[in-house]
């Protein structure tokens, strides 16, 4: 066997060059270049069938790429079978061996590499995941959360360069999932191994990862730090899939300066040129976007007090739902043909803001982003709910 | 077959390795071994089929002589052959009815109720399946002899129901056990009386298990030789006719009937598969 | 699950008093008897036609007498010793043939079951039909077909001869001269063939239940394919292996058809002896004693085997 246990548990980087996968006429993953820096917590985020799991499996060696290469720490491992790659996987539903007890499950990888005295390492690892007393139980006698920790221990004990996690929290209930997210993040910081995490849960990806790659239809739509993705989505899919966005169809009426001037219906909107990912010459169409929590809401009678220079849209409240920390409004804006969502913090509640009330929406131009109009404005909008 | 394997193969840097054939062989060893076993299983059926067109010189149909369709044109041309076939079908039918009714009742009792002597009943169901046929055959025949009961149709039927029963119980019990008891509670919640619950919910869900048990009974009874041999007296079922012919001379018609049974069964299975596929497809669209 | 299940349904009032007295109502006796009524006919059938005959046979085995004068229970246990003393070669042969056939079934059947479970893909149903289809032709006819396949002048024997395989097997004592029919090889070949589906089907069932991710997990944890098979696949298929070997060994040990049709007098198994003692010689006590010994031997071996393989411990 080519690999030997490296004494230090620092992670390695993963480089994918032009990697793709097709099954017959179906392309699961389009040629893809991706670099996961050593020691990072990297998330592949997308709805089911977007190619994220296939990508993960190609890194693990469980799937042969149709084209391209996989490099681990600078070494081309494309032709290596999984048992010769120094990566380990936490499988969806864990894939714990039902005929072996917890101890033997965790010791499995060490034993396969011919390590004789595994006792100390296994016990340490079981302590790390707080399952010491469970060592002689069978997997099916454990709860979901415990099984999940066994799966992590079984993979981590091998000190892989990269740990791959395939929807590791998918089978857990919400509360346990939150708890395990923090736990996994803690373990990652402690051991310093590169984590590549596949998930459909955008909150999970944003809480845990330092870098998130959003995948859709076998391609990476956008890659970046969670906050960056959220504030500056590059496509409608990212804008809708990560949180909620208000996307407004608009036409560029003035370009060239630091700010673009847009016309949406009767209203004029301003957008920083740097925050527009589409080409924006005068006369072209763009989508102006703004996050619901960035938008403020004033009753029509107080419209005069709105800060000068803010983007403003007059409208009518269609629906208001109180959810504790905030109130979520659905606002109809005539002339735009659509509805906008607005989240207001519940600091001072204006009793006049009830359904039917005429209001003015306003927000700082700096919070506006611009997207190419030649995209499906709804892309990714329903997927999120489905996945969650 | 093995779609993934072949794509893997075309991906592998095979050009570099000189012994490509050897690697292919290693990769597909299991598949090849499995196919060889499949061949071993099918070969006799092919031989039976081919030899149904033989025109043997002597009394035995073991060596190929001339092609002929004589036997196919006159399948009942041998004395007692079709009579024994009819008797076997009749026996199998009644044994199936008897074993299915009795076995389904036991299965429901075991799957749906708690009662004393449960483990005793389970053992009594299991033992006939774990017993060499010849032991059951000899002991039942001893009973009939001692009771002075005349061997014939009825003794065979009694024996067949006896050894088919356990298989029906096993098949039906598995199905009923895997059924969610809340379904029955839901039915009662929706105003179904116990009888209606049984007829409208329990029975339809258990039906595939019952059908499997019945089919197995039919096959076991129709093909049984050892137990029948001990308990038939002078009555001749189809397997007994074949056995006898192995001593006296094997008419080609035996192969004709064997082949016909094989083809009818395969056609039935294929038709069922096609119907199932079509149903699935129409559901999807 | 209990007969009490019916009490959860709205029961009709028992009578005028039933509605007023809030006593803990017991399940009506009639309903508690339901399982017994369901069991009665089938269990009675098994008791009368399966269990009672075994008892009868036990008593027959210790009887002495003759056909003309009738048999009487004389506690004549010597029948057992005489039967064993005379027919022990057939006993040993039965166990040996059945054992070899079982091992061959396992070796041949495992790849086929594995093929159906993991590799056949969309051909799975076709292969499955091909495994089950032979059942539909009477097994006696199929066994007779082996007489044709293994015939002295046939192509199989021809090939084996030209490859000198038969010289080797003759030296090993499983064939005689340049033929296969009427040798132990032919009988074992027939037994293996006849009980192979009983091995393949349970193996397939237990293999099919294995989550393919377990194979991937083993590969991910540094097990090469052969190790994955030894450490994961095979242990997880143990229920199928145990069921398959039992379903093959038990009927093979009691079989007399293959020995009769494909063997000669030197390949007679214990089944042949019981059959001829019972149906031709009409020596019922000896036939009964032999049946009992066979039954006891098989039950003992099966119990030991199940203990040893520790299947209770498996999932």
TrEMBL record, chain A:
Keyword Cell division among UniProt keywords: no
Subunit structure: The complex is composed of two ATP-binding proteins (PotA), two transmembrane proteins (PotB and PotC) and a solute-binding protein (PotD).
Domain (ABC transporter): residue spans on this chain: 14-242
Upper lineage: Bacteria, Bacillati, Actinomycetota, Actinomycetes, Kitasatosporales
Protein family (similarity comment): Belongs to the ABC transporter superfamily. Spermidine/putrescine importer (TC 3.A.1.11.1) family.
Annotated organism of origin: Streptomyces sioyaensis
SMART domains: AAA
Name of the gene this protein is made from: potA
Main enzyme class: translocase
Function in brief: Part of the ABC transporter complex PotABCD involved in spermidine/putrescine import. Responsible for energy coupling to the transport system.
Enzyme Commission number(s) of this protein: 7.6.2.11
GO molecular function, one term: ABC-type putrescine transporter activity
Domain of life: Bacteria
GO cellular component: ATP-binding cassette (ABC) transporter complex
DNA repair among keywords: no
A Pfam family of this chain: TOBE_2
Reaction(s) the record says it catalyses: ATP + H2O + polyamine-[polyamine-binding protein]Side 1 = ADP + phosphate + polyamineSide 2 + [polyamine-binding protein]Side 1
InterPro entries membership: AAA+_ATPase, ABC_SmlMolc_Importer, ABC_transporter-like_ATP-bd, ABC_transporter-like_CS, Mo/tungstate-bd_C_term_dom, P-loop_NTPase, PotA-like, PotA_ATP-bd
Name this polypeptide is given: Spermidine/putrescine import ATP-binding protein PotA
Keywords, in A-Z order: ATP-binding, Cell membrane, Membrane, Nucleotide-binding, Translocase, Transport
């Amino acid at each position: 066997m080519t690999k030997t246990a490296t004494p230090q548990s620092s992670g390695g980087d993963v480089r994918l060059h032009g990697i793709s996968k097709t099954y017959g006429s179906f392309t699961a993953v389009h040629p893809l270049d991706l670099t996961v820096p050593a020691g990072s917590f990297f998330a592949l985020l997308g709805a089911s069938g977007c190619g994220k799991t296939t990508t993960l499996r190609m890194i693990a060696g469980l799937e042969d790429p149709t084209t391209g290469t996989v490099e681990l720490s600078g070494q081309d491992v494309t032709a290596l079978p999984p048992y010769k790659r120094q990566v380990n996987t936490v499988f969806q539903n864990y894939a714990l061996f039902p005929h072996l007890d917890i101890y033997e499950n965790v010791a499995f990888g060490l034993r396969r590499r011919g390590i004789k005295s595994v006792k100390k390492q296994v016990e340490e690892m079981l302590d790390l995941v707080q399952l010491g007393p469970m060592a002689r139980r069978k997997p099916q006698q454990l709860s979901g959360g415990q099984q999940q920790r066994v799966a992590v221990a079984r993979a981590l004990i091998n000190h892989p360069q990269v740990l791959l996690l395939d929807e590791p929290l998918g089978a857990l209930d919400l509360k346990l999932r939150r708890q395990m997210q923090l736990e996994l993040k803690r373990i990652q910081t402690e051991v310093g191994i590169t984590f590549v995490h596949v998930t459909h849960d955008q909150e999970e990806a944003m809480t845990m990862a330092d870098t998130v790659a959003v995948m859709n239809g076998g391609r990476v739509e956008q890659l970046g730090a969670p906050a960056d993705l959220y504030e500056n989505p590059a496509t409608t899919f990212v804008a809708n899939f990560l949180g909620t966005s208000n996307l407004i169809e608009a036409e560029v009426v003035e370009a060239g300066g630091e700010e673009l001037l847009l016309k949406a219906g009767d209203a004029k909107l301003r957008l920083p040129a740097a925050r527009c990912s589409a080409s924006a010459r005068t006369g072209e169409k763009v989508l102006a976007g703004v996050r619901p929590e960035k938008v403020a809401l004033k009753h029509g009678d107080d419209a005069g007090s709105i800060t000068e220079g803010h983007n403003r849209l007059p409208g009518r409240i269609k629906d208001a739902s109180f959810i504790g920390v905030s109130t979520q409004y659905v606002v109809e804006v005539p002339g735009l043909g659509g509805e906008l969502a607005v989240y207001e913090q519940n600091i001072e509640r204006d009793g006049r803001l009830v359904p039917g009330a005429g209001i003015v929406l306003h927000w700082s131009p700096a919070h506006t982003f611009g997207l190419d109009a030649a995209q499906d404005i709804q892309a990714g909008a329903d997927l999120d709910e489905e996945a969650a | 077959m093995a779609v993934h394997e072949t794509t893997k193969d075309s991906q592998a840097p095979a050009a570099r390795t000189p012994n490509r054939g050897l690697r292919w062989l290693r990769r597909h060893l299991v598949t090849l071994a499995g196919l060889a076993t499949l061949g071993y299983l099918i070969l006799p059926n092919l031989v039976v089929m081919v030899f149904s067109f033989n025109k043997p010189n002597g009394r035995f149909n073991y060596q190929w002589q001339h092609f002929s369709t004589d036997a196919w044109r006159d399948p009942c041309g041998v004395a007692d052959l079709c009579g024994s076939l009819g008797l076997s079908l009749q026996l199998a039918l009644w044994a199936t009815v008897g074993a299915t009714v009795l076995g389904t009742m036991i299965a429901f009792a075991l799957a749906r109720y708690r009662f004393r002597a449960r483990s005793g009943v389970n053992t009594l169901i299991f033992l006939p399946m774990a017993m060499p046929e010849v032991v059951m055959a000899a002991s039942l025949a001893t009973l009939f002899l001692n009771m002075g009961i005349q061997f014939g149709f009825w003794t065979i039927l009694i024996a067949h129901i006896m050894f088919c029963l356990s298989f029906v119980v096993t098949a039906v019990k598995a199905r009923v056990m895997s059924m969610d008891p809340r379904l029955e509670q839901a039915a009662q919640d929706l105003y179904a009386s116990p009888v209606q619950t049984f007829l409208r919910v329990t029975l339809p869900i258990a039906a595939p298990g019952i059908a499997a048990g019945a089919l197995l009974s039919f096959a076991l009874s129709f093909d049984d030789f050892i137990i029948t041999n001990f308990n038939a007296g002078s009555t001749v079922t189809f397997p007994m006719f074949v056995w006898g012919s192995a001593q006296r001379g094997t008419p080609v018609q035996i192969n004709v009937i064997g082949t016909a049974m094989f083809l009818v069964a395969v056609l039935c299975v294929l038709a069922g598969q096609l119907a199932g596929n079509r149903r699935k497809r129409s559901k999807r669209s | 699950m209990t007969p009490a299940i019916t009490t959860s349904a709205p029961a009709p009032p028992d009578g005028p008093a039933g509605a007023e007295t809030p006593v803990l109502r017991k399940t009506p006796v009639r309903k508690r008897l339901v399982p017994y009524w369901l069991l009665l006919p089938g269990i009675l059938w098994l008791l009368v036609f399966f269990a009672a005959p075994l008892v009868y046979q036990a008593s027959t085995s210790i009887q002495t007498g003759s056909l003309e004068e009738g048999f009487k229970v004389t506690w004549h246990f010597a029948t057992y010793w005489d039967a064993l003393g005379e027919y022990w070669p057939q006993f040993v042969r039965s166990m040996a043939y059945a054992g070899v056939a079982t091992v061959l079934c396992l070796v041949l059947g495992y790849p086929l079951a594995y093929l159906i479970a993991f590799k056949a893909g969309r051909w799975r149903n076709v292969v499955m039909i091909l495994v089950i289809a032979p059942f539909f032709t009477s097994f006696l006819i199929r066994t007779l077909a082996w007489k044709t396949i293994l015939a002295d002048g046939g192509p199989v024997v021809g090939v084996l001869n030209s490859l000198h395989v038969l010289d080797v097997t003759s030296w090993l004592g499983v064939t005689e001269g340049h033929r296969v029919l009427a040798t132990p090889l032919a009988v074992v070949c027939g037994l293996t063939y006849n009980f192979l589906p009983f091995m393949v089907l349970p193996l397939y069932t237990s293999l099919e239940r294995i989550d393919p991710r377990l194979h991937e997990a083993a590969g991910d944890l540094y097990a090469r394919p052969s190790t994955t098979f030894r450490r994961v696949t095979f242990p997880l298929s143990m229920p199928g292996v145990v069921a398959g070997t039992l379903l093959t060994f038990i009927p093979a040990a009691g079989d007399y058809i293959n020995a009769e049709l494909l063997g000669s007098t030197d390949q007679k198994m214990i089944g042949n002896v019981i059959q001829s003692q019972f149906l031709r010689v009409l020596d019922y006590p000896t036939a009964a004693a032999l049946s009992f010994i066979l039954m006891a031997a098989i039950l003992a071996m099966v119990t030991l085997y199940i203990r040893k393989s520790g299947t209770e411990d498996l999932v």
